[in-house]
TrEMBL record:
Pfam families: NMT1_2
PANTHER family documented for this protein: ALIPHATIC SULFONATES-BINDING PROTEIN-RELATED (PTHR30024), TAURINE-BINDING PERIPLASMIC PROTEIN (PTHR30024:SF47)
Top-rank taxon: Bacteria
GO-annotated cellular components: periplasmic space
Family stated for the protein in its record: Belongs to the bacterial solute-binding protein SsuA/TauA family.
This protein's name: ABC transporter substrate-binding protein
Keyword set, alphabetical order: Signal
Organism taxonomic ancestry: Bacteria, Bacillati, Bacillota, Bacilli, Bacillales
Subcellular location: Periplasm
Amino acid sequence: MMRYLKISFIVLLSVVLIGAISGCGQSDVQKVRVGEVTHSIFYAPQYVALSEGFFEEEGLEVELQGTFGGDKTMTALLSDGIDIALVGSETSIYVYAQGATDPVINFAQLTQTDGTFLVSRDKIENFSWDQLKGSTFLGQRKGGMPQMVGEYVLKQNGIEPHEDLELIQNIEFANIANAFASGTGDFVQLFEPTASIFEQEGKGHIIASFGTESGHVPYTTFMTKQSFLDENEETVKKFTRAIYKAQQWVDSHTAKEIAESIAPHFEDTDVELIETVVDRYKSQGSFATNPVLDEEEWLNLQNIMDEAGELPTEVDHGVLVNTEIAESIISE
């Protein structure tokens, strides 16, 4: 009888220990809600971090949700609908200028160039920017980074956007491609993969890159409220470490390998098209190779905003940018 009691006790103890271990494992995993301003191949390193398990390695469960637009993304972040936002850095300046008591802090940069391309309706063999003069140009939404960069690049090439061409910027982001396909505009500013799809289907021709023309700028960064950063600094560090691993992975792998890794996140897109888009962005240096948002890029961002008449106030780099976390991760 004593023997059976002893065996039963050992079995019971084993069950308790297994349960305790499982419970510890579950409690160690922290859920992080991330809102992305749009779902795009442009954000390839983020999807690599998901596909290659870099977030899991850090004990994080990332819940990704679309927030569709800078204003909606900021609303979700400020109302605690999400913990971290992936959106253009200009949004943090807009929030700060409105007198936010809990400012939004940029802590990890993901892309470092504009992600749009100039697409012409007709094929142009020897393109020069002055060919846009007198044309109808279908641009992006006023106040957003694509439109501001678009106007900045036009000015850098001697074109006054509101005088030298007919600038259309009152069409919703989701409808811009359809408007061009329906016959509106001689030129259009498009993101990938739409630009490449239009080229494949003969609806347009990629003739220039706004990202190449505008130089390095913190186009999309991960940001969070100062209060969340203060209360969850270790979580933010783990998140940044996973992103840095993904950035290094993207930098050291081919466009084909990257495309195969992120393909599950773009089930409706052919993997060969994903590869074409990744290669285009990778070759022009759009993917940041580390998460540090440096002061030069921050100044370039504000210069672009100022040129477009959209900078509400100048903000010093150290006010809305935290580089300490990214720099500590890189130095590990």
